[in-house]
Amino acid sequence: MTGASGPFIHPPSLPPLAENVASVSNRLLRRARPSLKLFTLFVLLLLLLIPLNMIRGVLDERRMRKNEAVRDITASWGGRQVMVGPVLVVPYRYSIPVQRMESIDGRMTQVERIEKAVGQAFFLPERLEVQGDLSPSVLYRGIYEAVVYKGQFTLAGFFARPSFDEWKIPPQDILWDEATVTIAITDLRGVQDALHLTFGGSPLPLIPGSRLPGFQSGILAQVRDKKVFEQDRIPFSMTCALHGSVGVRFAPVGIGNTVRITSSWRDPSFQGAYLPASRKIGADGFEASWAMSYYGRAYPQQWTSQAGSKINEEGGVGESLFGVDLLSLIDQYRNVERSIKYGSLFLLLVFTGFFLFETLGAARIHPFQYLLVGAALCLFYLALLSLSELTAFRWAYLAGAAASTLMISLYCARILQGGRRAFVMAAELILIYGFLYVILQLQDYSLLIGTTGLFAALGVVMFMTRHINWYDPENS
């Protein structure tokens, strides 16, 4: 066929087989696109775990620096105080066989001799009553703080007359004039004034030193008057002004023990083997009372050094201590750590929202844009950590969440091509941040609330995607 200007040439056409191959390839690519996108998002989530772990490392470093600052403060003020006693210590002589080599008729022969050694008998009081008042304050080292206190303690009670009958020690071997009364106190740097003990009606000066095996720090008084031990009940009393930090512990050394502690601190944490029999906590502070007998402990009422150090054996005084710590229940580092644990869940929920916009709203979001949004979510935790060191946790959380939400919402207004979609994304972020804050505050029910929220989020996603044909989303 020819025309005015020459022959007419038909454009080349693809063979039928090539057309079918191209159509099938396009169809397969269209069907595989959601799977490829999901795989890409999974890889991005794994990559974003790296900055989350780096922020967790910064958290550990800041916590370590705070602990060092607290140790520096308490090193000069006084640490946690543990008071064990009073304990009456009475020395005595006892006979022991000793093998010696002696010369008999010019020959060295091993002979057995009986020699005297000195042991210690330990007696615990029948009744111990402790009254204590803790006046707390906060000391600062830079931006870090430590809770310290000035304590006023009064110890009173009585000993029964010491008896050596069960050990069959002769009266002439008991060294009454060398008897001492000792109290173990872990940190004597907290003692501010000279201490005195009234024992059997006589005032006795207390000097540094501990006669309790295993306790290096303490005070003791020497009992010079042997007539004191002729009384059936030997009363004692002592008043002690003691600086300390963190908290205080006592040991139930009496057959009957009563301890009453008051303080203006509003957040006490009762610790140890015994909880208070009664407590009252209010805006003005707390008042707690303990009452227990010696049946709950594992060491006896009296023992000797020949039988070993009963008070420090397994199940000894360390496992019977009780008391209170002046620690706030709100620890910003602990809350930040808990919030970081939900970081991967945050990323998953936000990425799910973006993916739904792509699938349902025909928006096109590049993986790099996902990465930038994920970086903004990670920066929230760094902002939360830095701000919580300077202000209350709730204000730090509010500022960090507002900054992250504002940044992502303004970015979404462009990449999602519409202010309405950006508003929906901002609402999702506000809901997620609010949900996390509720979980952090409800410690006992955080697992239940978190599980309920995840069920709700999964239900929303399932509802919104119920009509999507994942093999060919464009024909849904």
Number of strands: 19
Largest sheet: 9 strands, mixed
Number of domains: 2
Beta content: 25-35%
CATH class of the largest domain: Mainly Beta
Through-space gap between termini: 48 Å
> Any idea what the shape is?
elongated
Helix content: 25-40%
Order of helices and strands: EEHEEEEEEEEEEEEEEEEEHHHHHH
Name the CATH architecture of the largest domain: Sandwich
Please state the CA-atom Rg, rounded to the nearest Å: 38 Å
CATH-defined topology of the largest domain:
Immunoglobulin-like
**Structural class assignment:** alpha+beta
Low-confidence stretches: none
Helix count from the secondary structure assignment: 7
Overall pLDDT confidence: 82
Characterise this structure.
By secondary structure, this protein is α+β, with helices and mostly antiparallel strands. The protein folds into 2 domains: 32-67 and 333-475, no CATH class; 79-95 and 111-328, Immunoglobulin-like. It has helices at 16-77, 332-341, 343-361, 367-388, 393-415, 419-441, 446-464; strands at 2-3, 6-7, 81-104, 107-123, 127-141, 144-160, 180-185, 196-199, 202-205, 207-208, 218-222, 233-245, 247-250, 256-263, 269-272, 278-282, 285-293, 302-304, 322-325. Helix 3 (343-361) runs antiparallel to helix 4 (367-388), helix 5 packs antiparallel against helix 6 and helix 6 runs antiparallel to helix 7 (446-464). The mean pLDDT is 82.
